[in-house]
Design brief:
The chain is mainly alpha-helical and 91 residues long. The protein has a domain of 58 residues. Helices cover 74% and strands 0% of the residues. Helix 1 runs antiparallel to helix 2. The two termini are 42 Å apart.
Length: 91
């Protein structure tokens, strides 16, 4: 009987861990988007301090990196939205 109880507890632990992993994956994209926004706002004054002859490309720097990371980690959000739309159209 104790092995059945242990199996049930392990099953619950596994389900909780998977649920937490799903929720954690939803935090990455908004976190990187906020970091991109804050970096863009806080580094706006530093753009005049750059001593380059040519203008900097908008695809370089930390703002672009955080923006791309936000886009690359948006998969869980897209799956969540697609799942909600799919369940809304089902009878």
């Amino acid at each position: 009987m104790s092995s059945h109880r242990t199996g049930t507890i392990e099953g619950w632990r596994s389900a909780i861990a998977l649920g937490l992993a799903d929720r954690l994956s939803l935090l990455a994209s908004p976190t990187f988007a906020i970091m991109a926004l804050l970096t863009g706002i806080l580094s706006a004054g530093e753009q005049g301090m750059l001593c380059t002859a040519s203008p900097a490309s908008p695809l370089t720097g930390m703002v672009a990196m955080y923006g791309l990371m936000s886009a690359f980690h948006s998969g869980p959000w897209l799956r969540l939205i697609a799942g909600q739309r799919g369940s809304a159209h089902r009878p």
